[in-house]
Amino acid sequence: MSAGEKAKAKTEQAQGKAEEALGSAVGNDRMAAEGQAKKSTGDAREAKEKTKDAFKH
Questions:
Q1: How far apart are CA 33 and CA 39, in angstroms?
Q2: Which end of the chain is more exposed for a tag (fewer CB within 10 A), N or C?
């Protein structure tokens, strides 16, 4: 997994998780949904990079 893509995935996951938690805490459903989407994007990016790594070896 390229270091840059891995870092980007982890950043998206962390930001999404924080945004989702904040949205839930303040009752902002839109913010919570956007956070969840950002986290999912990070999860997908990480999975893609892991798949690419598996085929390199």
A1: 10
A2: C
Identity (one letter) of the amino acid at 29? D
16 is written with which tokens? 């999404």
Q: What is the CA radius of gyration of the chain?
A: 13
For residue range 12-47, list pLDDT tens digits in order.
999 999 999 999 999 999 999 999 999 999 999 999
Q: Which pair of structure tokens corresponds to residue 25?
A: 């805490």
Q: How far apart are CA 50 and CA 1, in angstroms?
A: 6
Within 1-57, residue ranges assigned H as helices are 3-26, 29-56
Q: What are the angstrom distances between the C-alpha of 22 and each of 9, 16, 28?
A: 20, 10, 8
**Single-letter amino acid code for the residue at 40:** S
